Amino acid sequence: MTDVLRRGRASLAFSFLVQGVAFALLVTRIPAIQDRYGVSDALLPAFLAAVPILAGVGSVTTERLVKRVRPSMLLRWSQPVVLLALLGVGAGERMVELGVALAAFGLAVGVLDASMNMLGVSLQRSYGRSIMLSFHAAYSLGGIAGASLAWVGAHWDLALWVSYLPVVALLLPAVLVGSRWYVDDGAAPAVAERAGEGQVVVFKWLLPLCLVMTVAYIGDSTVSNWSAKYLKDVLGSSEQMATVPYNVYMVTTLLGRAIGDLGVRRFGAVSVVRGGALVAAGGFAVVAVAPGAWVGMLGFTLLGLGLCVLVPQTFAAVGRLFPGASDAAVARLNVFNYVGFLIGSPLVGALGDAWSYRGAMVVPMVLVLVTLVYARSFAPQPDRYGGGHERPRTADVGRGSNGL
């Protein structure tokens, strides 16, 4: 299985990277999309909210589909739909065409996110050591690449379809070829067994992880949506400098995820999650009290290093908590990705307008600290499906593995 697992890991990491590219190309060109279709400022939030809402629908649907279809098959066909929908966003001319393309993008992204993380959880279980952060590092790298490509398109004033077409033409055949090496849980057990038939995902056990997922994405959406405005309007930076914090955040997220698996293997998931939550809360505190732009950028740097570990470790924890029903649990957990995204940006905007943007940054800081209360959910859990034995920690398993 060594070569099979290695190829499976590489092909899945590539899918994460491609998804990072696609999502960044969409969200970083929102002003250009708005101009192309004549979407008013009043209508734009409805279009933007529709994507995560439909993604949540896609994730819930995935939970049903994996009872009959392997996650690898869902990923194999949802990723091309995402890429083609992205091209549709750039190539359309009427608002109804934009709506159809965004609807397809949202639904497919929900299936894609859920199935990717299902495969990541099962691969980590097969490896016997922490590798989940490496997949999300690939996503961060893709996000940096996509944002850079979007900058090139905006800088040269390229039409959206001109920016998107070469990317889709390159990545679409690549993901189809790479999908041949996806590895499902346990190589090839019966689908019903792998999907956890006869086992129940108990929501009260899942709820702490759902809360952590929501908080992590509230923090992430705060940075992605408000860092530039905060630096420019609150800390008085130039418009050019205001574009830097998000790029710094993405780079530090990549670096943190690239080395995060080593930390999990050495110190365990609980310590890594606690440390990430404290660093992220410290980042929000620095941003809230920053006297100037450079200190503010330091705060956003800390945010990247802290928040980057929470989401991958939450997916990994749900795989340990429900080992016989991890696909269903991942699909349900993934919905709270979009809940956090929907809450985060409006929450900070409303607080900033009604109170102050400095004060608004304190709210996600407090929410991130709530993660400390639930950090024990990332520890190995007693076997609730019989036997009553403690499952081995990922870090301990990793020390005894053969280093695949």
UniProtKB/TrEMBL annotation:
SUPFAM superfamilies: MFS general substrate transporter. Keywords: Membrane, Transmembrane, Transmembrane helix. PROSITE patterns: MFS. It is found in: Cell membrane. InterPro entries: MFS (IPR011701), MFS_dom (IPR020846), MFS_trans_sf (IPR036259), MFS_Transporter (IPR051788). The chain crosses the membrane at residues 12-30, 42-62, 74-92, 98-119, 131-152, 158-179, 200-219, 246-264, 276-294, 300-322, 329-349, 355-375. Coiled coil: none annotated. This is MFS transporter. It comes from Streptomyces coeruleorubidus.
